[in-house]
Write a structure and sequence with these properties.
The protein is 75% helix and 0% strand. It has 106 residues and is mainly alpha-helical.
C-alpha cells in the first residue's frame, strides 16, 4: 500500500493537480507540527488524543490510509488508557508519507 492513495486524493481534490499539491503541502506541515507533540509523553493524554484525532482527519483528506488507521488506534488508546500506543509505527508511516509528498508528481 502506498503512503498516499492517489485515487483517494484525486477524489478529494476533483483531480485538480495544483489543489492536490497544495493539500499535500498542508498535510506535510501538519505532520511536522503534530507528530513531535503527539509523541511527547509530558503532554496530557487527552491533549495527545486530540492531536491524534487531528492527524487522523488530515490523513483521511489526502488518502494516507496507514496514518489514518494508526492515528485512530493512537487516539483510542490515549483516550481509554488501554494498551500501548503505536507511536513508532505512526512515526514510520508519517516519514513514508512525507517522503512521498517530497517527490509527488501529479
Amino acid at each position: 500500500m502506498p503512503p498516499i492513495d492517489r485515487a483517494a486524493l484525486d477524489a478529494q481534490t476533483g483531480g485538480d493537480a495544483d489543489l492536490a499539491r497544495e493539500v499535500l503541502m498542508l498535510f506535510a506541515g501538519q505532520c511536522r507540527s503534530i507528530l513531535p507533540r503527539l509523541t511527547d509523553p509530558a503532554l496530557p493524554r487527552g491533549e495527545r488524543a486530540d492531536l491524534a484525532h487531528t492527524l487522523k482527519g488530515s490523513a483521511a483528506g489526502v488518502g494516507a490510509t496507514r496514518i489514518h488507521a494508526l492515528a485512530d488506534a493512537a487516539e483510542t488508546r490515549l483516550r481509554d488508557g488501554g494498551g500501548p500506543v503505536p507511536l513508532d509505527d505512526l512515526a514510520d508511516a508519517v516519514a513514508a508519507a512525507l517522503a512521498a509528498v517530497a517527490v509527488w508528481h501529479p
